[in-house]
Amino acid sequence: MFVLHEPQKLQILYESLEKNIPESLKVYGTIFNIRNKNPFKLEVLVDAWPDYQVVITRPQKEEMKDDLDHYTNTYHIFTKAPEKLEEVLACPQIINWEQTFQIQGCQEILDQAVRKVAASKFVQVDYLKTHLFMLETPVKCNTSRDGEMELMEVFKMQNVDEDNKKKDFRSIFLDASYAGLLNEQWEYGRNERSLKYIERCLQNFPAVGILGPDGQPISWLVMEHSCELRMAYTVPKYRRQGKMWQTGEHLIKYLSEKKIPFYVHVADYKEKVQQSVKNFGFKVCPCGWHQWKCTPKKYC
């Protein structure tokens, strides 16, 4: 596999992946952000061009300095040829099996290859499958005449709900100063590495919060580097009052206006959350959302 650098080729790949939504969503969303300033310093690998069969996004090598930082060390994969995956994944120039890392995708067919290669590398695999949701109509990005992305201040942090400033509950875009609060409540966080990851997300991507009467966030929703909406949380005292609905409404309106793709995943056991997401207009995607956390035995 090789790195695809040229903006025009990335545009062609992006448009091609759009035809494979929802299975391509993780890679599709990541490439959107690669073409929008690339704040996480990611790169795109393909097995061939233009007739690719496998696409992988990953951090550039200099970004993966911490062998235990699986938040940074994340690979997103989409394939049209699952029979090629084992050979691709086994290549040390493509996947660094000496580190703790994550593989994320929207294709369950990745599972067999990931597990087989991991076993051969003496790597432990923790697998997570959840429900993937997206709106009925995928949101397309804006492109200029020559195919380049129009930034249009896409991630400009500005207050929303300007007419509601004087009310007790006000919607704002959160900045990195709130990272500690979000990290404390994120079930996959609560450590120093997750704190740094959340800070980067808040610095570079839209995140909406609802401020309570004391001026502190009581509900929030954050976009991450593959355009997925995550870390949704509402303080227990304010649950069942429509605060998450308000949060989602503002963020989704903003993303739709800016033509930024988005989607969410919800765990199996969170049935009430699933229903709320459906009520919002999202549909469940049969392909599901999949994550493989891979940990070398020496770090277990």
UniProtKB/TrEMBL annotation:
Q: Which residues does the UniProt record annotate as the domain Glycine N-acyltransferase C-terminal? A: 209-296
Listed SUPFAM superfamilies: Acyl-CoA N-acyltransferases (Nat)
Gene3D superfamilies named in the record: 3.40.630.30
| Keyword Thylakoid appears in the UniProt entry | no
What would be an example GO MF term here? glycine N-acyltransferase activity
Which Pfam families does this UniProt record tie to the protein? Gly_acyl_tr_C, Gly_acyl_tr_N
Q: Name one GO cellular component term.
A: endoplasmic reticulum
Source domain of life: Eukaryota
Record keywords: Acyltransferase, Transferase
Could you tell me the EC number(s) of this protein?
2.3.1.-
**One BP annotation, GO:** monounsaturated fatty acid catabolic process
Would I find Transferase among this entry's keywords? yes
Q: Which residues form the Glycine N-acyltransferase N-terminal domain?
A: 1-206
InterPro entries assigned to the protein according to its UniProt record, in alphabetical order: Acyl_CoA_acyltransferase, Glycine_N-acyltransferase, Glycine_N-acyltransferase_C, Glycine_N-acyltransferase_N
Enzyme's top EC category? transferase
* PANTHER family on file: GLYCINE N-ACYLTRANSFERASE-LIKE PROTEIN 2, L-COA N-ACYLTRANSFERASE-RELATED
What family does this belong to? Belongs to the glycine N-acyltransferase family.
This chain's protein is named: Glycine N-acyltransferase-like protein
Record lineage? Eukaryota, Metazoa, Chordata, Craniata, Vertebrata
